[in-house]
Amino acid sequence: MSVLQDKKIVLGVTGCIAVYKAAELVRQLVKLGADVHVVMTESAREFMAPLTFQTLSGNPVITEMFKLYEERKIGHITMAQRGDIVVVAPATANIIGKAANGIADEILSTVLIATRKPVLFAPAMNEGMWEHPAVMRNVQMLKDLGRCFVEPGSGDLACGDSGRGRLADIADIVDEIELMLSPSDFTGTRALVTAGPTQEFIDPVRFISNPSSGKMGYALARALRHRGADVVLISGPTMLPVPRGVHTVHIGSAQEMAAAVDTHFPASDIIIKAAAVADYRPRVVSMHKVKKNDDAPRIDLERTTDILADLGNKKGKRLLVGFAAETQDVLANARGKLERKNLDLIVANDVTIMDGGFGSDMNKATLLLPGGETVDVPAMTKQDLAHRILDCLAGIKLKLRDIPDEPA
Ligand code: PMT
Fold it and tell me: In which element (H, E) is residue 200 found?
């Protein structure tokens, strides 16, 4: 289940050209299961009609201070109490100034004063306005009050200027909301995640690899960060954007992955190996492109390091999680890997299913624990599966905390 499933989000929309992007924000939040209630200022309504937001959110849009909501409740008080979070996107210099200085003279500024829920601002304005000392001071005042910000990005601005002040990417705003609404049960944990394929070069233009997209590992890195962990992600070549707030190390081959894991392993409490590491590489890499001729060339292969097995031998008190990508005897093969590699948990996935395995946004898995316990996880998004894996790990962490250390 998505972190945002059934969460009530009050979205304040203020007047600037980026209002149209707020419509996409509503669409994405609703897609993730959130119940979105939009509050629009008068100037926001100059840019877009409330009907757009009403249609996308499925809820009435609040525009007036003293109109009764749902026929008997006062709008600003209902909104202030209703949400799990209040998000203002786009947030103008005006609303930031009002919120920082306690001014409540219309519906949204009044919601912002009345609420006791977490508040997130996503500012959007001209660069000169954003950099103005009064705006900077107001932003700092709000941060000091515990309000959160998704900082604006750089690029072409609606006024024709170019610079800092564009509304942050919608994906980043959603990411920040997820972070603010996630449990923080991994706070203080240092996590190492591997993701994606490795590439084992035959010559400068050819390599042996596999179809891993990195989605599963990246989802785990994001979920860990949302739940409070400090995360290092070691990634093979993928097309995915680097997850926000995650220290990402890019590698190419299994050997490079092994070296990067070696560097970061000592400072990690939890290691999750979702990467699809090549088991074999060419014994010799040709310096130049192998020329085509009538005889098919023979490629002599050798084993790569089994990184996970190595970690299993030296893990100490760290929690070690592996994946098993299987096409037959899924559970038996996965349990063999769990035992041989001395893991605390293995995620068995059948990579032959349609909606799962390599490349898909979805996955279906069985989590296997050393005591013989298994947890079947039905098909769901990789992001949701990542949270299920973390739920299971949180349980293991708790159990380990209760076991006293052996006497030296
Ligand atoms: O990246 P996606 O497109 O989202 O796809 C996700 C996935 C299918 C790649 C992922 O869910 C998955 O199953 N990852 C593990 C793939 C794999 O290499 O499985 P394996 O059964 O061959 O390896 C078992 C474990 O040993 C894995 O944790 C692997 O990272 C590790 N290993 C394997 C070989 C090796 N030389 N070193 C290793 O550390």
Answer: strand 200-203
Q: How far is the CA of 289 from the centre of ligand 1 (A)?
A: 29
**Ligand 1 neighbour 221 (Cβ under 6 A):** no
What's the CATH number where 23 sits?
Answer: 3.40.50.1950
Residue 153 and residue 260 in one domain: no
Domain count, the chain: 2
Judge if 204 and 162 occupy the same domain.
no
User: Last residue of some domain: 181, 201, 226?
Assistant: 181
Domain-located, residue 318:
yes
Give the model confidence (pLDDT) of 163-183 as tens digits: 889 999 999 999 999 999 999
pLDDT number for residue 75: 63
The residue-averaged pLDDT of 273-294 equals: 95
What is the per-residue pLDDT across 27-84, written as a single tens digit (0 to 9) for each?
999 999 999 999 999 999 999 999 999 999 999 999 987 665 554 566 667 777 778 9
Confidence of residue 295 (pLDDT cuts 50, 70, 90): confident
Q: Which domain holds residue 314?
A: 190-283+300-402
Q: Whose C-alpha lies nearest to ligand 1, atom 27? A: 323
At 197-218, the pLDDT tens digits run 999 999 999 999 999 999 999 9
Give the Cα-Cα-Cα angle 325, 328, 331 (nearest 5 degrees).
70
Cβ of residue 324 lying under 6 Å from some atom of ligand 1:
yes
266 shares a domain with 219 = yes
Q: Which of 192, 277, 281, 326 is the best mutation target for the ligand 1 pocket, counting ligand atoms within 8 Å of the beta carbon and taking the most?
A: 277
| Nearest CA owner, ligand 1 atom 16 | 276
Q: Decide if 159 is catalytic.
A: yes
CB neighbour list of residue 213: distance below 8 Å, 6 or more residues apart? 196, 238, 239, 240, 358, 359
d(CA 256, CA 188): 28
Q: Which amino acid is at 408?
A: A
Positive or negative: CA dihedral 257, 258, 259, 263: positive
Question: Does 160 score more than 80 pLDDT?
Answer: no
